[in-house]
Amino acid sequence: MKVVAVIPARNESSRICRVLEEARPFTQNIIVVDDGSHDRTSDVAREAGAVVLRHQINRGQGAALKTGTLAALRHGADVIVHLDADGQHDPTAIPALIEPLQSGRADIVFGSRFLGLQPEDMPSWRRVLLHGGLVFNRLALGIPRRITDPQSGIRAMTANAAWRIPFSQDRMAHASEILRLVTRSTLRWTEVPVRVRYSAEVLAKGQRSADALSIVWELLLGAFQS
Q1: pLDDT tens digits for 61-75?
Q2: For residues 18 and 87, what is the distance between their CA atoms, to the nearest angstrom?
Q3: Which CATH number is 130's domain given?
């Protein structure tokens, strides 16, 4: 199976090379979508051997994933893996993510921080924020209770599943949108444990408490538009 990784990136020139090096042994191709960076993210990724696409303006992580996913399908991907450019996601989890796809047990696999592999250096406030997202997804969006990590950004899917998930949220609400679309479809899904690595740099760029309100607003608007 041809495995293609899609990595959205913005101003990640100092960290993306390590991610690409770690992901390369588990993929046949890597597509980096530079989402309006002001640094050398595109150049560093290209020099490291990735296919680089670029948004001239910052459109958001969801939009970058959409661009990269469509490109992966055009490149003949059988399996598409989504992961972050900042090193938060451990690329060595890719084999565990794609195994249920290769064995035919699932169409899409979500990585979960809460299935036994403890996140590295996760602050308590981030855990509380994620728990709040879990409750919101269950009550407001009808996401099944057995989903343990609704805001996970590391996932893998077959090409057929990718065609069948028409997510449209441009920014951080895409994770919940993808879950809602998948769990309301006939696609088979599962979660696998993944280890997420936090650092001061990752936390400085990552979601803050105020971002949760933006995600809720984006999801509510999307629900009325769908």
Answers
A1: 999 999 999 999 999
A2: 8
A3: 3.90.550.10
End-to-end CA distance of the chain: 33
Task: Give the three-class secondary structure for 127.
Answer: helix
Give the pLDDT confidence score for residue 225 in this predicted structure: 43
The total domain count for the chain is 1
Amino acid type, 198: Y
DSSP 52: E
DSSP, collapsed to helix, strand or coil, labels residue 182 as helix
Q: Any residues with CB less than 8 A from the CB of 24 and at least 6 apart, and which?
A: 30, 49
What confidence tens digit (pLDDT) does each residue in 14-29 have?
999 999 999 999 999 9
At residue 155 the predicted structure's pLDDT band, cuts being 50, 70 and 90, is very high
| Longest CA span, the chain | 45
Tokens 């938060």 correspond to 88
Residue 57 DSSP label = S
From the list 11, 18, 14, the residue with the least C-alpha distance to 34 is: 11
Strands (E), 117-182: 155-158
Q: Looking at this protein, which amino acid is placed at residue 52?
A: V
Structural domain of 72:
3-225
Q: Quick one: 27 exposed, middle or buried, by C-beta within 10 A (0-12, 13-18, 19+)?
A: buried
